[in-house]
Amino acid sequence: MKMTFRWYGQSDPISLEYIRQIPGMKGIVSAIYDIPVGETWPLDKIEELKKSVEDAGLELSVIESVPVHEDIKLGKPSRDKYIANYQETIRNLGKAGIPVVCYNFMPVFDWTRSDLAYELEDGSTALIFDEEEVNKMDPRTLSLPGWDESYTAEEMNQLMDEYKEVDEEKLWENLEYFIKAIIPVAEEADVKMAIHPDDPPYSIFGLPRIITGGEAYNRFIKLYDSEYNGVTLCVGSMASDPKNDAVAILRDMLEKGRVNFVHARNVKLVGGRSFEESAHLSEMGSIDMYEVVKALHDFNFTGAIRPDHGRMIWGETGKPGYGLYDRALGATYLNGLYEAVSKSAKK
């Protein structure tokens, strides 16, 4: 496996210089953040990003993410225009030698939490999802973590109304339409696509969510039979639903050759569908991270993995979930597990 780190570009308070100093760090996961959703990414901007990463002694391993326009998810007539732009972005990423693109198909918003700075027993702060608190919220009047802040209140209300006409099966149809249009282009461009699971992996605010577990992953990879139509196996997202066995799902997708990217973080289930994001260490959460790493070793996974969200520790402040210290500890822990698994396997 290849250890990588999420970096939010030149505005990120965590520099590439600091990231490079993390033991075993090889690559960067990033994106271009100033292009409106639905527009084509110019080749020169992609190459500029890649050069800045390579000048720091790292490689640009994954683009996370190229956002999917809501018109595509809604299945509007305008989707073909946005799909054509997406195809051109994939072609440009291929020309720049970018091997993997992570994306998601969640309606309206990305990952959602009820608190971005919940204090844990050790005094660190973390992202949490309190099911009871979220159920009390009205998405039309709130700005939640993970929501796209570019939407006005009027646009948000319109989107929520439009999604009343889109149930899970309709969303599956719209995803299939998208996949069948982009994967042939990805094959030609030699760019592996990696869909991220819904986070958390169940419906929120009445909006449909479909990439929710092992059964959904298997349905997804059958939409287009190609190694370029793969998944981002985010064990933290999968384990956020107590019904999911994240390690079993990981092994299944590895066996089928469809894991194109891995997010590794631990979560602590605290009842119902509520959870806290914990330190990466197995005993701190509900996921056996040793078994996660062992699965990657057993199937000789050579792709990119990154420590996902981290706590805020040692007085650090910054982008919630994306501080330096705890994610650096996570990367080192995961590399240590991999070394131990590898050497044990040789005995």
Describe the model.
The chain is 38% helix and 16% strand. The protein has helices at residues 16-20, 43-55, 70-74, 79-95, 131-135, 153-162, 168-189, 214-221, 235-239, 246-255, 289-298, 325-345, and strands at 2-6, 27-30, 59-64, 100-103, 115-119, 125-129, 192-195, 229-234, 259-264, 267-269, 275-277, 304-307. The strands form 2 sheets. Strands 1-2-3-4-7-8-9-12 form an 8-stranded parallel beta barrel, surrounded by 4 helices. The longest helix has 22 residues, at 168-189. The chain is globular.
What's the SSE pattern? Answer: EHEHEHHEEEHHHEHEHHEEEHEH
Structure classification: alpha/beta
- Uncertain spans, ≥5 residues at pLDDT below 50? none
Q: How far is the N terminus from the C terminus?
A: 20 Å
Main beta sheet strand tally, sense and closure: 8 strands, parallel, barrel
Number of strands: 12
Q: Helicity range of the residues?
A: 25-40%
| Strand fraction | 15-25%
Number of helices: 12
- Spatially, the strands of the biggest sheet line up as 1-2-3-4-7-8-9-12
* Overall geometric form: globular
Rg (CA only): 19 Å
Mean pLDDT: 93
